[in-house]
Amino acid sequence: LESKLSELKSMTSIVERKESLESQLSIITQERDGLFDKVASLEGKLDNVHSEKVLMNLSICSLSSGAEEARKELDVVRNQRNDLLAKCDGLENEMSALKVEHDFIVS
């Protein structure tokens, strides 16, 4: 009878230990699931940041391209201005020459 009682106590102890381990496993599983959720959330945020980075890089490329086009247009306008200034200088020289001729003829 005592051996049966001892065996019963041993089995009870084993069952209690099993229940304790199951409880701990449940807690660990919940913590693991919570960590998986956090990882998924962080991965989502990382994807969003990456998408924003890609959009910003595209914007920078677009702005750079626009700036290059503006530089080219500015160069064209500067060249046109320089041509006009050269023509003005030529006309001023002609005017001076005509004035000298006029003054010579008048005198």
How is the secondary structure organized here?
Layout: H1 2-106
- Assign an overall shape: rod-shaped
DSSP, total strands: 0
Q: How much of the residues is beta strand, in percent?
A: under 5%
Number of helices: 1
Order of helices and strands: H
Question: Ends: how far apart?
Answer: 155 Å
Radius of gyration, whole Å:
45 Å
Q: Overall mean pLDDT score? A: 95
Q: What is the share of helical residues?
A: over 70%
Helix/strand structural class: mainly alpha
Low-pLDDT runs:
none
Q: What kind of sheet is the major sheet?
A: none
Describe this structure in words.
It contains one helix and no strands. The chain is mainly alpha-helical. It is rod-shaped.
Brief synopsis:
The protein is mainly α.
